[in-house]
Amino acid sequence: MDGIEKLKKIIDESDNIVFFGGAGVSTESGIPDFRSVDGLYNQKYDYPPETILSHTFYRRKPEEFYRFYRDKMLCLTAKPNAAHIKLAQWEKEGKLKAVITQNIDGLHQAAGSKKVLELHGSVLRNYCEDCGKFFTAEHILHSEGVPCCDECGGSIKPDVVLYEEGLDSQVMAEAMDYIRNAEVLIIGGTSLAVYPAAGMIDGYKGKKLVLINKTPTMRDNVADFIIQGSIGEVLKLL
């Protein structure tokens, strides 16, 4: 039985699947990741991306932060790809219990997924730091300089987890609960190099840990089943 057929059998026989995804899920929708040859880490800026996307930099140089953020982080024309669509289909069929994602683009919800746990937040949510008023990603994209609240004049901050900021404890706890109770845990489009998110999979105690990624991951040695390839292409075959 080849890899796809074996994976199809695992999926067909389970109604308790949890999916844990990273940047590779969104690159097929045209959203750049951080570590590939064409990713953000290889772009030329006055500061490296991990510096710009830090809490300290956001506070000290908000204009520079927003220049980079609008240019590289707001990919608002991106559409869900085969991976997003297949996961939404599985949820609708009662097979998939939750999507846990490190991505901040909202494409899982755009594809129809309902239970999406966003470990690193979302570019689609933005709030005034003073009064809490909500603003859309389009508002941020079309604003200039540091976007300010039209109610109180306060600075608007994206609801994304920057470097030096902690993950939302409630979201993490819920994600851990789904991982702990999953029969099948599928990890796709991530090298499992970003912590603390990557460490969450240690909570999985089942016997069907599936890794799907274009390159080897940090946890290949603990996987029960590995397919090396594009997450979108693999899920489309199912």
UniProtKB/TrEMBL annotation:
It comes from the Bacteria. The active site is at H120. It is found in: Cytoplasm. It is an enzyme of class 2 (transferase). It holds the Pfam family SIR2. NAD(+) binds at A23, T27, F34, R35, Q102, I104, D105, H120, T190, S191, N213, I231. Residues 1-238 form the Deacetylase sirtuin-type domain. Its main location: cytoplasm. The keyword Cytoplasm applies. Keywords: Cytoplasm, Metal-binding, NAD, Transferase, Zinc. GO terms for molecular function: histone deacetylase activity, NAD-dependent; NAD+ binding; zinc ion binding. Its EC number is 2.3.1.286. Its cofactor is Zn(2+). Binds 1 zinc ion per subunit. GO terms for cellular component: cytoplasm. Nicotinamide binds at F34, I104, D105. PROSITE patterns: SIRTUIN (PS50305). The keyword NAD applies. It catalyses: N(6)-acetyl-L-lysyl-[protein] + NAD(+) + H2O = 2''-O-acetyl-ADP-D-ribose + nicotinamide + L-lysyl-[protein]. Zn(2+) binds at C128, C131, C149, C152. Belongs to the sirtuin family. Class U subfamily. NAD-dependent protein deacetylase which modulates the activities of several enzymes which are inactive in their acetylated form. HAMAP family: Sirtuin_ClassU. This is NAD-dependent protein deacetylase. It comes from Kineothrix alysoides. The lineage of its organism: Bacteria, Bacillati, Bacillota, Clostridia, Lachnospirales.
